[in-house]
Q: What sequence folds into this?
C-alpha cells in the first residue's frame, strides 16, 4: 500500500520529467526506428512545435543526438519536441534518399517522415502548423527534400554541411514559401561549398539563390561579419540574410569561412551554436510564414529620432541603424530591466546589428542623447 501511494505521489512528477523514447513504426514494409526527446517543460496542455533532426550518412540517430547535432539543451529551454529518425542501410551506410550518391535507393523516407508526424500527433499535443526539419550532411540534403516534397507539412528547415542534389533541385515543387537556413564551411571536403562533390550536388550559392527566388526575397542580402568569439578554431562566420519574402519569409546563410564538415558549436567552429541558430530561425515561422506577419509589419516599421533611423522594428535577426551624420557614434542596447546586452559603434551610413543571440522582447537602444524602444520579435 505504501508503494502504491508513493507511485501515485510521483506520477505528476514523472509526467513532467525529461524523456528519451526509442520508437518504431511499420512503414513501406519495414520497421523504422526513431528517437523522441520530450523536454521537461512539456505538459500536454498547449500545442507544441515539433523538430526533426536527421543524421548524416553512415551515422545513427543516437550518434546524431549525442555527438553530431545535440539540440536537447535547446529543446529544454524552448519546449519543443525533438525527433531523431534513423535512416536505412544503402550504398555502404545508413542514409536518407536524396538522389546524388543515394540515387537508386527505394527508401520512402518522405512517407516515413509523414508517418512519424501522424503518429506523434496522435500521442502528443503537436502544433501541426509548426513542424520543422533540420539535419547534418546527408540529413541536410534530406531537409531540402522535405522542403520540396512535403512542404504541406513542413514550415521551415535548416541544413548544416548539406546541400541540394541536382535531382532534388530539378524536381522541387514547394506549395508555399519555405524559410531556409544554411550553415556551411568553405573548406568542407565532404560536401563541397562550391558544389560537385558528392556528384550531382548543387553549390551553396545556387541553393541560396533558388530559395531566395522561390520565397521572392530581396535579391541582395544583408551581410554581417559575426564576432570571432573563439580565435583558436581556425574559422570565422559571415551571415547573409535575404529578407522581405512572401509571407515575410527569409533565407539565411551562415558562411563558415575556413570551416570544414562540422556541426558548429559541437565541432569545428565555436563562434556559433548551430542548434541554437537553427531554432532561433525556424521557430519564427509557421506553415503560413512569419508568425504575426500580417499583424506587425516587421518589414516596414521605422523609428526615427535625431537623424537616426532604426528598421525594421520589430526586428527578427538583423536591425539596420541608419544615420544622416558622417560622425561615428556608439550605440548601447539595454534590456527593460537595465542590463546591457549589446553595444558597438556606428561606422557607416547603414550599420547592421545582429540580434540572433539575444532573446525576444523589448529593448532600449541608446545612441548619443536619443533613446528608442526596439522590439526583438520571436
A:
Amino acid at each position: 500500500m505504501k508503494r502504491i501511494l508513493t507511485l501515485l505521489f510521483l506520477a505528476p512528477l514523472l509526467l513532467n520529467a525529461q524523456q528519451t523514447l526509442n520508437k518504431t513504426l511499420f512503414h513501406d514494409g519495414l520497421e523504422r526506428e526513431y528517437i523522441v526527446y520530450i523536454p521537461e517543460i512539456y505538459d500536454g496542455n498547449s500545442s507544441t512545435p515539433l523538430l526533426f533532426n536527421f543524421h548524416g550518412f553512415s551515422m545513427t540517430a543516437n550518434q546524431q543526438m549525442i555527438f553530431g547535432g545535440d539540440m536537447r539543451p535547446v529543446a529544454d529551454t524552448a519546449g519543443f519536441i525533438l525527433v531523431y529518425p534513423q535512416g536505412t542501410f544503402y550504398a555502404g551506410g545508413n542514409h536518407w534518399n536524396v538522389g546524388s550518391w543515394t540515387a537508386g535507393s527505394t527508401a520512402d523516407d518522405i512517407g516515413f517522415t509523414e508517418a512519424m508526424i501522424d503518429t506523434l500527433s496522435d500521442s502528443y499535443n503537436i502544433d501541426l502548423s509548426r513542424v520543422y526539419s533540420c539535419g547534418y550532411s546527408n540529413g541536410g540534403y534530406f531537409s531540402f527534400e522535405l522542403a520540396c516534397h512535403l512542404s504541406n507539412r513542413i514550415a521551415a528547415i535548416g541544413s548544416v554541411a548539406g546541400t541540394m542534389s541536382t535531382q532534388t533541385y530539378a524536381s522541387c515543387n514547394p506549395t508555399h514559401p519555405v524559410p531556409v537556413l544554411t550553415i556551411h564551411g568553405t573548406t568542407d571536403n565532404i560536401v563541397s561549398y562550391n558544389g560537385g562533390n558528392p556528384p550531382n550536388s548543387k553549390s551553396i550559392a545556387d541553393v541560396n539563390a533558388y530559395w531566395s527566388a522561390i520565397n521572392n526575397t530581396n535579391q541582395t542580402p544583408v551581410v554581417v561579419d559575426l564576432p570571432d568569439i573563439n580565435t583558436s578554431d581556425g574559422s570565422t562566420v559571415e551571415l547573409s540574410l535575404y529578407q522581405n519574402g512572401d509571407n515575410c519569409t527569409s533565407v539565411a546563410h551562415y558562411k563558415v569561412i575556413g570551416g570544414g564538415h562540422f556541426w558548429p558549436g559541437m565541432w569545428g567552429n565555436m563562434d556559433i551554436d548551430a542548434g541554437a541558430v537553427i531554432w532561433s530561425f525556424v521557430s519564427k515561422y509557421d506553415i503560413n510564414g512569419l508568425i504575426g506577419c500580417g499583424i506587425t509589419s516587421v518589414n516596414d516599421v521605422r523609428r526615427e529620432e535625431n537623424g537616426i533611423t532604426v528598421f525594421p522594428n520589430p526586428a527578427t535577426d538583423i536591425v539596420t541603424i541608419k544615420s544622416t551624420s558622417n560622425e561615428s557614434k556608439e550605440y548601447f542596447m539595454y534590456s527593460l530591466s537595465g542590463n546591457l546586452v549589446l553595444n558597438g559603434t556606428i561606422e557607416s551610413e547603414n550599420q547592421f546589428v545582429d540580434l540572433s543571440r539575444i532573446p525576444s522582447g523589448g529593448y532600449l537602444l541608446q545612441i548619443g542623447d536619443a533613446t528608442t524602444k526596439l522590439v526583438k520579435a520571436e
Summary: Residues 1-15, 296-305 have pLDDT under 50 and may be disordered. The two ends are 49 Å apart (CA to CA). The longest strand covers residues 126-136.
